[in-house]
Amino acid sequence: MTPEEAQAKLLQLAEVMDRLRALPHSDLDEFRSDDRNIDAALRRLQVAIQILIDVGSHLVAMLGLGAPDSSRDLLERLEKGGHLPAGSTVRFGKAFAFRNRIVHLYDRVDDAIVFEIVRDHGAAAGGPRGARGSICRAASPSHG
To answer: What is the pLDDT of residues 28-81, one digit of tens each?
Structure first.
């Protein structure tokens, strides 16, 4: 992945997060009232988290931090290398695990949990203190 491709993915991430925040998130019943909300939220969460994994994998390789065995290991390597804030592995490891649930255990995803993520964490994941902000800073040409 080139730096330009990484930046394009991060721009796509910003768009996905904007679309995620545009979903109804003030009331669970409103969120559930249209199945398209749940479907859109699941897809947007999956894409957003996958972008973080892809760009994070690129960073680990670019920074010479070794080959991660898993997405959690990816976070650990970036955190230990000082490229993610302390606690990022725990915080974002849960998001990465949720992406796996969406993809592999899709029949066991609770729409109330999806709603809580959209309501409580959608903004945090894309904000300056979130993984997106940290990975954007680490991926920038001036980093290092």
So the answer is: 999 999 999 999 999 999 999 999 999 999 999 999 999 999 989 999 999 999
| Site of tokens 């925040």 | 21
Measured between alpha carbons, how far is 115 from 37 in angstroms, rounded to an integer? 9
Contacts of 34 (CB under 8 A, 6+ apart): none
pTM of the model: 0.79
The rounded distance, in Å, linking the Cα atoms of 83 and 58 is: 13
In CATH terms, the superfamily for domain 3-139 is: bsu32300-like (1.20.120.580)
Residue in the structure block whose two tokens are 């994998």: 57
CA gap 35, 29 in Å, rounded = 11
Interatomic CA distance for residues 69 and 5, integer angstroms: 23
